[in-house]
């Protein structure tokens, strides 16, 4: 039986206190989530000590003992995919009675994998966050199995809203598209920025100026698009005056097949995500 959850009174246990867990915990605590309800475990005691000093949460180097002691309402699995089975299997007995909500942020680990390793009738949420979570501007896709209650979904919403936006999907397979867009997406924009910086230098700017202008333009374009109620296509049209400079550049992108290339690239990323999940 799952316990009733209030998003601000739920006891959270993070297994693995690396980059992502640090960001989520930092975000939660800075948003007023009670630190005494949060426990984080890791192999690295020094890392835990630093996190405890910064946030005042509870820490432990013993995953099973900490999970049992905390009497967790939700366990957030934040270790690398390759150690997930070894980390989760020993928790099976510890959580057998309580049946807490299991949330995984690991790429390529399916709900089925987690049920196999931790127990068949558990409520499980599989998520796909992205790197900008590290600066609280992440985009996380989430999928919940049928055992997850609305209150548990609200809790997961609270957790991932602490690092950006949380977006729900009805099919687990939708997470492959999430990987292709937001999971891998930061790298696409980095590549575009890298290319713009290089082109700026070729046009005679210093590397510093090219970088500063490129980054601020990327940030400004995203902010403008978010603040606007028209499509990105319309925003693009509005800054593309007939016969102007932007039109020349856009024409080059179109003739070079940028749209088709983006489509092919995202299909490839989605295909790879399916392969990795087995
Ligand atoms: N970073 C991202 O942008 C991003 C985006 C989407 C999804 N993810 C997913 O998020 C998860 C965590 O990523 P991350 O970047 O935060 O990785 P990370 O910084 O390496 O954090 C993982 C932590 O888990 C610890 N750990 C390893 N084995 C453990 C065990 N048996 N018990 C307890 N802790 C253990 C690691 O310690 P050691 O360093 O000592 O091994 C490390 O501190 C991964 O599954 C990744 O796929 C990350």
Outline:
The protein is of the alpha/beta class and 278 residues long. Helix content is 53%, strand content 13%.
Please supply descriptive tags for the structure shown above:
278 residues, alpha/beta, 13 helices, 8 strands, 53% helix, 13% strand, elongated
List the helices and strands and how they pair.
Blueprint lengths: L11 E4 L3 H12 L7 E4 L3 H11 L2 E3 L2 H8 L3 E4 L6 H5 L3 H4 L5 E4 L6 H8 L5 E5 L9 E7 L5 H12 L2 E5 L5 H10 L1 H18 L4 H21 L4 H7 L6 H11 L2 H19 L2
Q: Roughly what is the average pLDDT, rounded to an integer?
A: 95
So what's the overall shape?
A: elongated
Ligands and ions found: NADP nicotinamide-adenine-dinucleotide phosphate
Q: What's the arrangement of strands in the largest beta sheet? A: 3-2-1-4-5-6-7-8
Summarize the helix and strand pattern as letters: EHEHEHEHHEHEEHEHHHHHH
Q: Percent of residues in beta strands?
A: 5-15%
- Radius of gyration equals 22 Å
Distance between the termini: 30 Å
List segments where confidence is low: pLDDT < 50 over at least 5 consecutive residues: none
Sheet with the most strands, sense and barrel status: 8 strands, mixed
The number of distinct helices, counting runs of at least 4 residues, comes to 13
Structural class based on helices, strands and sheet pairing: alpha/beta
Describe the structure.
There is one protein chain. This protein is an alpha/beta fold. It has 13 helices and eight strands. It has an eight-stranded mixed sheet, sandwiched between helices. Helix 1 (19-30) packs across helix 7 (150-161), helix 8 crosses helix 13 (258-276) and helix 9 packs across helix 10. It is elongated and about 70 Å long. The model has no long low-confidence stretch (mean pLDDT 95). The structure holds NADP nicotinamide-adenine-dinucleotide phosphate (NAP). NADP nicotinamide-adenine-dinucleotide phosphate is lined by residues 15-21, 41-44, 47, 63, 78-81, 83, 87, 105-107, 129-131.
